[in-house]
Amino acid sequence: MAGEKVSDMWLVTEHMTTEEWVRVAAALGGRTGARARRGSSTRRFVNAVLWVAQTRACWSDLPPLFGPWHSVYVRFLRWMRGDQWHAVVEALQEGGPKEELRRMIQLYVDKGIARDMRRKVLAAHASGAQLGMREA
């Protein structure tokens, strides 16, 4: 166990099938040919995100076969902002990876909503404090 990374202990039993990939590729349209800066394919990227969703591991525990974890994470966030993940979820078969991906997407959506609310509250508080200073 010494010297072994956490990711080496988690084996993913479910990757996208070829049939699922065909549906995901069709749902994504032109994005399937898009490659990350380091040249990773879209299918490998989606499988990397499915690995994180299924294992509930930290992004930094992503096995090297999926590429640099930070690149996968940043691309995942870009796809969240672009709303591409809903098309991927709908293209996957019912069961394990689909439900785990849906859970992870909802977690990130909830975090984004909470972050936006916190920013609004802080902005309102800051503007109120500034107004109070001007009146004095």
From TrEMBL:
Pfam families: DUF4096. It comes from the Bacteria. Residues 16-88 form the Insertion element IS402-like domain. PANTHER family: BLL5188 PROTEIN (PTHR46637:SF1), TIS1421-TRANSPOSASE PROTEIN A (PTHR46637). This is Transposase. It comes from Pseudoxanthomonas putridarboris.
